[in-house]
Each structure stands twice: as structure tokens, then as C-alpha cells.
Protein 1
Amino acid sequence: MKSQNQSILSIGSNQGNRLEIIQKCIQLIQLEIGTVFSVSKLYETPSWGFESDTFYNCAIAINTHKSPQKVLSGILKIEKQLGRIRSSQDGYQPRIIDIDIISFENEVLNTASLVIPHPQMQKRLFVLLPMKDLQLEFVHPLFQKSLQELIDSCEDKSSCKVVSNLDLPIGKYNLQQYNYIAIEGNIGAGKTTLAEKIAQDFNAKTVFERFADNPFLPKFYKDQNRYAFPLEMSFLADRYQQLSDDLAQFDLFKDFIVADYHIFKSLIFAKVTLQDDEFRLYKTLFDIIYKEMPKPDLYVYLYQNTDRLLHNIKRRGRSYEQEIPGDYLDKINKGYLDYINTQTNLNVLIIDVSEKDFVKNQSDYVFILDEIRKKMEE
């Protein structure tokens, strides 16, 4: 999965309840555009380029899967939602809300509707000072200057006074309360995508399954009876080795770890794919290994219906997966649910994402975070 893009936005208001409007704006960006992972202090600054009431300004940093054009479209929608009416009149004007894209990764973009980095950012102290609060390693992609160098050379000497702190939207989730989260799901459910997204947004350590390196997997999908046992044994050995190695690098009492699998999935798949005598032998070996494995503080199971799984598998285009039958996915799902129902000492959260797309729709991702938060509050 492609990692999210990092973008810096500048937000200003000089009409109405400026603090309330800006805080609402940040919440809407979190819900509709991307995860707001850093927020500056709130600054009061004089109007720039025209005579008007003073502004409140801030900067935020977001992670997003959207393109710059999609981000622009989203912020224009939010501005309208908050009551801004854009005028065709030339020059600067008072406004209830103003959201500018300051940077987008290290991209340089110049179109009729969008210029990145923002062409006036280096001239505006009310943009640069809030950006400094974000504590990012920002270097201007055209000028090759650090943020401090831009501040030092800025000719704008207007007053920029800190007036308040601002709420960070992801602060309410406190996922780090769980030191170790395992995200599971059927083939094509999106577990790796979600694990990577949460890890990036909440600065977590990651453990990802090395499924693509298994030489038996393409053979298994062509001849299941012949290759089921070596496939499941190799998966078990690899998962045990990887989890042992990766988790040993971390402090399970201090680090925040997100994994896209739990070793029990080995038993679930083996029960579906192996003959009875093979499974008995397999389970004997598995039970020995399982006792040594750390258990996650939260086990999230992403449920998707079979039609949606088949659609996702086709869309991601791995050649060896294209012939997976729906009844095989049904059996895997039943295996997971049977396992979950027998676990009395595992903290389990089942989330139905059959009608969700948490990459395309930020609100679907926020829904998942809210489900995890509710589980934490139980």
C-alpha cells in the first residue's frame, strides 16, 4: 500500500467566534480530508494586505491518501460549509475562514487553481511561526531553506501573538493505551492498509506479515491438496520467526506496536486447508509455539462480506490470488469467527467494514478509530 502524503495547511479567521470556527474547521479536516497529527498554537495577527479586524491563525499537519487537487476540493467544501462566500472582487477581504495548502510532501505544482508550495508563504510570519510549532523537518523545495532560515529572512515584522492552544483531534483516541494491537481479517479485508495507516498517524512500531515471500503460495492456489501442508508449515515457521525477531526489538510495556496479523491465524487457515490427520500434527506443533507468543492487548477483526473481498482481491491484482473461490473465503471467515467466539482471555473488537472504504473516505477511517475508542472506554 502507498504511504500517506504529508501536507501542511494554514488556517485563518477574522469574523465571528474565531476560536470556535477554527477548532470546528480542524475537526472537519480530520473527518473529511486527512488525519490531523500536529496542530500549532493559535496566533492573533493583524490583517495582511488590507485594513480589517485582526486574524486568528494556525497551522496543521495532516496525513492523507488524497491528491493535492482532492485536498483543495475538500477544503473549498469545508470553507463553504463554515459559511465562507467567495467574492469575485479583487484583493484581500475579511473572511470567516480561510484554508491554504502550504506544502504537500516535497511537491512543486503550478496550475491555474493550485500552486505548491504556497507562493507567499516565505513572506508571511503568520504562516511561518505556526509552522514552526508543528516541529517538522521542513525544507522549502524551491529555495532549499529550512523553516528557521525562512523566518530569519522574512521581511514581515508584524505582531504574531500566541493567544491559545488548540485541540488535537487524534488526541481523544489515545491508542497508545494499548501497547500491542493486532489487526486481522480475511484475504482482501484491508488489515495491512489499516495497520500501516494507524501506525503512521499515531507513530507506532509496525510488524507486517511477509506473505509475498512464501514460495508455496502461488503453488497452493493451483493445487491446494498437494501444497497445503508445506504452505501452512512454512507460514507457521515464518510467522513465529518474524514475530519473535520483531517483537524482541520492542518494549511491550512502553512501545506502541501495530501488527497486521496474529499468529493464531496460522491455525485458522490450517484448519480450513489441511486434512484431519495433517491438522492434528500441525496443531501439536502450533500449541507449543503459541504458548511462547506475546498476546495483543487488542485484537481487531475487520469483517467484510465475500463479494467485497473478491472485489478487493481483483482490484489489487496479485496474479496468484485471482482464482481464489468465494467458498474458500467463507470458510476462512467462519474459522476466524469460531476462533473469536472461543477466546475468553483475548480483548476482541469486530468491525464490519463491508460498506466502508477507509482509504478513499476519511470519515470511514474515523469511524474505525471511534469504534476502537469505544472499546477502550468499555
Protein 2
Amino acid sequence: MDLHAKLKIALEAAAEPGRAAPMQAYMRDQFVFLGLPAPQRRLAARDLLADLKDIDPGTLLEHAQLLWQQPEREYQHVALDMLALHRRQLGIDHLPALLALAHQRAWRDSVDGMAGIVGDVLQAELRRGGDGHAHMDAALRHDDFWLRRIAMLHHLGWRGDTDAAWLFDAALALAHEDAFFIRKAIGWALRDYARHAPGAVTAFANAHRQQLSPLSRREALKHQPP
């Protein structure tokens, strides 16, 4: 029995169908659900995903693509769990495939999950001497605002590895956009960096109060002194 057949059996056995409708409603009826909250989903798939420890990147991405094509939303979440678990198998050459996945059936849950995986790949590249942020330049200009959100959020948790100039330039490059998910991402990214450099973020937000939306600025300064 192949991985996908085993996952289907494991997830359906753990699902609570009564939860499917509320989960679907929460996602604005864009996706159907098995009715499997995250803790139960991770537990059901844990051993099957752990068995892939020696998997090559190409096969890993093939599995992710197959999971992404399944109608129930939990399968995309399992794909993200799998990619996150085996992220050390991935490098910058795999970024186009990861972003192509994020482009499909995109919503906040899958996009933000992929932003974390992309960020891990890029931070590893940075620590090997490469330029982590530069690989997001094209995504920052992409027609799909969800990929622009990934570009804005990929460095969450980087702290001292964050290139502040890139972060601030990216925030200004997207500041004119009206989309809630972009404005929120700008504020979230700045607020996260403020944990490492609060003064720099406060100075930036104050200097560019006319360009940043009230939402972005409020989120950026959420944990800063008045």
C-alpha cells in the first residue's frame, strides 16, 4: 500500500465528520473538510511522515503535489506538515516548486504554512553564506498577492538574521496595497522584527506613518511602548 492510500485510511479513521461543516464555514466555504483538527491530523499522519526520513527532494515534492490535489483541505495541511518535517532536504532550487504549490488553492492557512517552510529554506541558505532575502525579490513583485504575502512573511522568527533594509523596503513596496492580508502581513513582519530591534521598527513606523496603513502601523507597534 502506498503512502497516499495509508494516509487516506489514517486520516479518515481519525476524522470527526461532525466537525467538517464548522471548519468549512470558518474557511468561508472555499474548501471541503474531513473534520480533522490539527492535533488529531498530526497524530494520525505522524508515523507515516516520519518514515520518509531518507526521501529525496524530488519525491518529497511529488508527494506534496499529490496531496495538494486532494479535495479535502486536511490533505494540504498534511503536505505542509510533511514539507516542514523534511525541510532540510530542500534547498533554494526547490523554491519555485514550493511557491507553485502555494499558488494553488491558496488561502491564509496554506500560504502562511508555506511561508514558514520557505523561510526555513532561505535561512539555511543564508547561514551557508548565501543571500536569503534576495530569493524573495520576484515573489514580492508577483501578480498573486498570496505570494507577495509569503515574501513579506518568510523571515518571521529570523531575529538577527533579518536584513532590516530588505524588510523595510519590502514593507514600503507593498504599503500602497489595499488587501487586508497584505496590510496585516506588513504589520506582522514588522512586529516580529521588533522583538529583536524595537527601536528600529518604531523609528521606521513613525517615519513612514503616511505610507503605512493604520492596520500595518498598529500591528507593527502592538507591543511597543506608546
Protein 3
Amino acid sequence: MEFTAQQIADLLNGSVVGNPATQVSNFSKIEEGLPGTITFLANPKYEHYIYTTKASIVLVNNDFTPSSAISATLIKVPNAYSSLAELFNLYEKSKAKKKGIDSSAFIAASASIGEGCYIGAFAYISDNAIIGNDCSIYPFAYIGDNVKIGDNTIVYPHACVYGECEIGNACIIHSGAVIGADGFGFAHENDEFKKIAQLGNVVIGNKVEIGANTTIDRAVMGSTKIRDGVKLDNLIQIAHNVEVGENTVMAAQVGIAGSSKVGANCMFGGQVGIGGHITIGNNSQLGAQAGTISNIKPNSQLMGAPAIPVKNFLKSSVIFEKLPEIYRTIGRLEKEIEELKTNKK
């Protein structure tokens, strides 16, 4: 399906610079642009590609001013990256949605399936599970006993939702994710570790996305809670009784230990590690590989392990590579001081 530059501009409340009749039917990277595609420029370091790209249309920010001629038609918008995301989402929604229940799927007699759902081949829906309207449960997904899933939620292949867990509306659970496995709870007694039954569940809010192979453990008692709007990347571990606040985002390999509370609107880079039983304040930002074992105040920006304020970390990082030289210098100075003391005697 083709769209003109003017149609796209009208959709995004943008303005056309060039030929408004230019047509596109697909997307491309700016450095790999092909005729008939639309691309974008948001990061200035990619600007040089806009003068050579073969893409037919380029989304740019309103404040973009070219330094030489551009063959592509431009669409100026307030934010090129978010406008591209909007187009992606519209394109995704235009795809035909799977519906119907495959004959090889297992659905317990006591389960409830809403209207307009898709249940793929060999999916397993357990006793008393409740699936809302317009959900998609892909092949080989497992939905445990008494699970509740809201409307318009997607559970991709091989994802597992253990019994008693709850998932809200418009969520996306990617392949291999495990929701509600036992938390890591053991009591050390007589030189052995005895398992502590994990009697709680996981409660996930609305518009939450859980990445592939991410795990969210059930609570010992009560609930592990993932609030509305949270976005979790692939390969993240959320331990038992953790609470994650609204609209917090975490990149790959983040690990949150048991009973910690993460505030709203936080941003964690990859491999951030959070110790147990601590609180991370709202709007905190932790850079990649930051590690912390103590409470963090709201609006903090930290890096390093142990995590320290970003400005201090950047200053310290300049010194790290000089440490061997500094060590040798200190050794030499200590030796000179000892020689001075000896000569003075």
C-alpha cells in the first residue's frame, strides 16, 4: 500500500519540503535508503547520510536546516523519532490479526475465553483461567490455573504464566518469558537449604511489555507488582516481592533482588544490579552496570559499581587508566621520603 508525502505529513501534523506527491510503501535506514521508502534523521551524527540517501522521503525535526542539496522529499515534524514510531505502530496495526482457536490447543472446560481471541496450536489454557477480549495466545504458550489476563494482551510462543498470576490490558509477553516462577527462597538449616514455599503471585498492570526470556518471580506472600506502563527488555530478572513503579524502563540483564521497590519513571541501563530490600526513588536513572546495595533518593543519576553520581563517575573514569602510573609515583615518593629521613639522621 502506497502513501504520499502529503498524506503522511497530514497524519503526523508535519509539513512537506519538496514534492508532496512523492510515494512510499516501505521503511529503510537512512544509510541504506532505497527508492520508494521512508526513513528519518534524528541523531545529528547521521546527517551526512541525508545528502546521499536514496530514500524517497525523510522525516526530520522542525529545526533541521540542510547544508547542501537533498534529493529526497522532507517531512518536518516536532520529533522525527517519535513520528517514525507512530508510523511503525500504524503499520503494525494494519496487519491482519490472527483470530480463532486452533483445534490442537487445550482449553480447560472451566476456563473463560473472551471474544475475538486467537489461541494458537498447542497453547495450554488451564483450569479457571480467564482470558479477556481480543487477546492473542500464540502456539505453545502456557497459561496456568486461575490466571487472569485483560483485554488486547499478547502472549507469544513458549511464554509461561504460572498459576494465580494476573496480567492487565494491552500487555505484550514475549517468547520465553516466565511470569510467576518460584522466588529464590531457602532456609539454611543443618547444612542444607530447605525450600520455602512461594505462596504469592505476580500482578502486572496495563500496557506493560515483558521481553524475551525475562523472568518475574512470584511473591513469598502477597504479590510481586509490575505497575502500568513498565517496559522490560530481554533477559531481565525480577525477584520475589519486588515492586516496579509506573512507566519505568529497564534494558537487558538488569537484576532486581527480592523485596526491593523501584519508583516510577526510572530508567535502568543494561546489567544494572539492585540489592535486596532497598528503595529506588522516582525518576532515577542508573547507567549500564551500575550496582547499588543502599536506598537511592528520587531524581538520582548514578553509574558504576558501587553506584555513584554520574559526574563523580566520569571524573573517576579519567583517573582509572592512570592508576598504575600513580601507584608507581607514590612508591617512588615513599622511597625518597624514607631516604630523606635516613640522611637526616
Protein 4
Amino acid sequence: MSETKPIPVTKQMVWVAYKKVKANKGSAGVDGESLKIYEERLADNLYKVWNRLSSGTYFPPPVKEVEIPKEDGKIRKLGIPTVGDRVAQMVIKDYLEPRMERIFHESSYGYRPNRSAHDALAKARRNCWLYSWVVDIDIKGFFDNISHEKLLLAIDKHVNEKWVKMYIKRWLNAPVQKEGGELIYKEGKGTPQGGVISPLLANLFLHYAFDQWLTKHFWGAKFERYADDIIVHCRTKEQAEKVLEKLEERMQSCGLELHPEKTKIVYCKDHKRTGNYEHVKFDFLGFTFKPRTSKAKKDGYKFLGFDLAISVKAGKRILSTLRQSHFHRWTSNTIEGIAVELNPKLRGWLNYYGKFRKSAMAFIFYNFHRRLLKWIMNRYKSLRNNIGKAYGMLMRIRKAKPTLFEPWKQGFFAKGLKMTKAV
């Protein structure tokens, strides 16, 4: 690094940041430049990022807004920075993260090194066995409503470097470019959901707005937080009601609002916890926690427990993705080719949702095999109207190549498939 540069950003820092951005992939920003195009002039592009960051002259371009449809018919807005801006953000994120990690709460799991959604789910599972009540918290439009003023106060507590604060302010104030090209400027709140540095800033904001506050005022309660997905465990209904009442006030004081329909108090009902209550289940990180039949490990005794498995919403999303692929129409492809195309997604779903009660995913792979059977009937004319022979062929393929598809490797195969419904 040149001694004339006033800011201690090195070329090595930029290179490490680029490698992480490359690993995370992602689409093009407002400039339409994909990772592949960016890498055609990689040395020049990275030099430009380093030169501007280290001299204080880096200004982020607008963030591309992408609308993602949600299950309830509403829209989730994601902000996609350019590739170069993602590299720049990663440099500052890497610089700040170690000191933030020293202060963050042990019950915060989202977007932190060496912590995962599975860690949060396992802890939530244990706490549901120990605590009878859960406050299921949903913050309305969290990323769009983060107060810049309050966030910068939190930054000031841990960051002395003026250049770091300068760049954070520039990213917070960077406009959003809508699909039609219109630029929307922020009015003191919001950070793009999709930005590289946004999760770190969001964690810092909620560290003070929620983690520290709950620990101080309700020391007997436990919680798990994954970014803005939060559940709080309480021993009594009265405590849960008090937490919810005070939390509504706390969020308002921080410029946030709890979603009135999605935030609720849940009773963790099992064979020991009797009584009838309005809510006995909740969703967290793609899983549904609710009363389920469980089996004791020692003697196989069955009892009603409170446990988690893939949520109906997550299952429907997976089925929708399989349906939209139309792989049963890929008649010019071989079954090995289909496996190559689908296995990465199938493996990802199984690795994530199969972590807890993998058997609950059976309905997904039943539908997958129905569609695979349809592919055989479409590909081979002699089997088009003979479901029995088509099923026999599928059985033979599985026997000859038991590891061809990821679900087969993990013990899923639907017996007695019925093609009574359209696929």
C-alpha cells in the first residue's frame, strides 16, 4: 500500500473481500455487470476499488431494487448492489466484524461466523422443552425502518475511525433504483436487505434495541434471534404477556413496530402441559414448532412432545420450485442429466430441512417421484399409457443406481406411486 494513502485499506483486504463476494455469487446491480463480466477486467476493477477506498473517494452507486413475491401475496424488496460495491462493502464488513463479534449476544445467530440457523433451531428446541411459553416476534418491515440516527449512535460506541463511519453513512444514504430507473432517496431510515454490510449493521442495531434490553429487563427469559427473526421463551403466560407489552413500547421507541397479526404468544403444549390455548405452534427459520408424536430412545415409548419439522410454507415453496422446473418434460435429457441438474437443489433442501425430523419431508419426495415417473412416460412412447411398466422401470433404475438422486442416497423412495392427479 502506498504511504500517501490516508486510509489503511490494503490491496490484500480488497482481494480477500472479492474472493468472498465471488463465493457468494449473486446477480448484477444497476450497471448490469455480472461477476463474469466483472472478472474480465478483474485487476483493473479491484485496483479501482482499492484506490478509491484507501483515498476516501469511494462513493457507492445506487442499489438495484428487486421485488420478490411472498406467500401472502405481498412483495419483499431486495437491494442488489453492484459487484464492485459488494467488494467494497465486504472490505469494511471484514474490518469491523471481529470487534462486533466481541460484543454480540450468544443468543444472536444470524449472519455471524461459526453460527448457523441450525444452531438457533437446536437451541430453540431445547428451550421449548424447558419453557412453557413462547413470544413469537415479527418486526414489521425491519430493514426498511432501521433508524440511521440510532444506528450511527451504536456505531459511535464501537468505531473510532472517521473513515469507517464516513463509508457507512454513504452506504446508508445510497439511493435505490427502481425497475423503471427512478431513484428513491432515503429519509433517515432503512438499509437494503441484500447488501453485504446490512446484516452486520442490523445485528448491531438489534443488539441494543432488543438483545441487551431483554437481558436487562427480563433476565429470566431466554431467546434466539436470527437477524430480525426472534422468539422469546417464558416460564408463565403472565411473563410472556409482560414481555410482549413492554417489547411493543421498546420497538416504538426505536422507530420499529411489531406486526400485529404475526406476533403472538404460543403455548408449547406436550404430554405434561395440559390446557387449551389459541396458539400452540409457531414458525421459525422455515420450521414449524408444534405438538408432535415423539418416541423415547431407550424403550421406544411414544408420547406427545413439542418438536420441529419443515414448515408447510417451506414445503410448498420446494414443491413450487419442482413444478416450475417442468423437468418431466425434459424428454431430450437422460435421467443422469436430470440428476445433474436437480441434485444441487435436492441436496440443499435435504441438508437444511432434513436436519430435524427428516421423515417429514416424505410428501415432497413423493411428489418428486410422481414427476419423475411422468418423465419416463413422456420419454418412452411404449410406456406412455402403461403406468405399471413405467413404475417398474423406475424401480430398476433405482436398484441399478441407488445413489443417482440425492433423496435415494438418504433413503427416500415413494412406493405405490399413483398418478391420479396432474403433475
